[in-house]
Amino acid sequence: MIMSEKCKQHVDSCRFCWMCHHICPIGNATGHERSTARARALGISLVNRGAIELEEIMDNIYECCTCGACVHDCTTGWDPVMFTKETRLQAALEGKLPGYISALVDNCLKTGNAYGKTEICADLSAAASAHQSKTDTLLFLGADARFMACDQAVKAVKVLEKAGVEFSVLENEAPSGWQLDFLIGAANETKEQMSACAKALDCYKTVVVYDPNDAKAIKQLYKEYGVEVKANVITFTAFVASLIKEGKLKAENTGKKVVFQDPYQLSRDLEETEPAREIIRAYADLSEMLLNREETVWAGNILMAQYMPDVIKLVAERRIFNAKSVGASTVVTACVSEYVSLKAVAGDVEIISIEDLIVG
Ligand code: SF4
Ligand code: SF4
After folding, report:
1. Across-strand partners of 257?
2. Which of 11, 20, 21, 26 to mutate to test the pocket of ligand 2 (most atoms within 8 A of CB)?
3. Angle between helical axes of 80-93 and 37-48 (0-180°, round to 10)
């Protein structure tokens, strides 16, 4: 397998250690050492040395959610996300993707989303058509909300309406490219999607990005891949927090006791931890989860549930257990994918989004 020297160095250094296995959400869910960063490095190093074929490790390569907990925890500075994504890219280039991943990639290329959806729900369509006029501000909803959690997308629209913001919503949004980046890394197809999206965003002065997956892609990965965005891009949480500060959203604290599930894309990748807390404290009584802010534990997503639903269910159940361990009865989410994952297994724990707190 062709791999950059930088990645080879990380693979060959990381594979002798096991110091981050306890924080890997997938490894903890499966209970398998093969699911952790070190084991993935070992598999890749065996391929690099010609001992096994690339196809033999690909299921394992797609077990990683790229949450970066291992990268954050690694005191020696090795980066399993980097070598995992480069291996995905190489498998795509060599035509060695697992069939279930090729199907998702094909959907991304044909429909702009991994789920192969072509229509948004009637409620979102109505909400979008009320904001079809061109304004300076775009609310960018993203594929997960538009196609898989329509009610939450509608609520995000209602939050900005409640604050009296003038904004636009697109009936047909360009994909940000985050799903392709997750599936096949920095391939030409990924960069082409990102460039097309950047061009669409540049028609606006401000772009409010609802989904942290899109926010990470647009604010961080675009720069890494040389894709320029001229618009001022702001996360939904940072934008809503500013609306509260400016008095445009009138909040009332109900005293409801909640904890917050930090999305890693905000807390680790974009180093944004406080705006969501400012919003929540305006509406409720916030205490903290075990492992919060940049130490957060990923709680599952919609994309990986397409090909490993049982593991994603276990991942979410473990995070619910963490919430119960601190006596929490309500968890607030800021990532629509984690909202869906947690909600599916919540039991007697209430899962609500930031939008739910604001518009009910
Ligand atoms: S990422 Fe760092 S801590 Fe984790 S196994 Fe590799 S070298 Fe060890
Ligand atoms: S990125 Fe996350 S899922 Fe992947 S090996 Fe690291 S901790 Fe585990």
Report:
1. 285
2. 26
3. 40
Backbone angles phi, psi at 87, to 5 degrees: -65, -40
Structure tokens at 190: 């990924």
Residue length, the chain?
Answer: 360
Where are the extended beta strands (E) located within 135-250? 137-140, 206-209, 232-235
CA-proximal residue: ligand 2, atom 4 (nearest): 64
122 vs 128: CA distance, rounded Å:
10
> Which residues have a Cβ under 8 Å from the Cβ of 75 and sit 6 or more positions away?
19
- Taking alpha carbons only, the member of 235, 242, 330, 331 closest to residue 279 is 242
Q: In a structure prediction context, what are the per-residue pLDDT tens digits for the chain, which is 360 residues long?
A: 889 999 999 999 997 788 898 999 999 999 999 999 999 999 999 999 999 999 999 999 999 999 999 999 998 999 999 999 999 999 999 999 999 999 999 999 999 999 999 999 999 999 999 999 999 999 999 999 999 999 999 999 999 999 999 999 999 999 999 999 999 999 999 999 999 999 999 999 999 999 999 999 999 999 999 999 999 999 999 999 999 999 999 999 999 999 999 999 999 999 999 999 999 999 999 999 999 999 999 999 999 999 999 999 999 999 999 999 999 999 999 999 999 999 999 999 999 999 999 998
Atom of ligand 2 nearest to the CA of 26: 3
One-letter amino acid of 226: G
* Residue ID of nearest Cα to ligand 2 atom 8: 24
> Judging by beta carbons within 10 Å of its beta carbon (0-12, 13-18, 19+), is residue 351 exposed, middle or buried?
buried
Both structure tokens of 54: 């690339």
At residue 318, what is the residue type? R
Atom 2 of ligand 2 has which residue's CA nearest to it? 67
**Closest to 138 in 3D by CA, of 211, 205, 228:** 205
Kindly state the helix (H) or strand (E) to which residue 258 belongs, with its residue range. strand 257-261
- Round to whole Å and give the CA distance between 297 and 318: 9
Domains annotated for the chain, with CATH where assigned, are: 5-97 (no CATH), 122-241 (3.40.50), 250-359 (3.40.50)
| Dist. CA 176 → ligand 2 center (Å) | 23
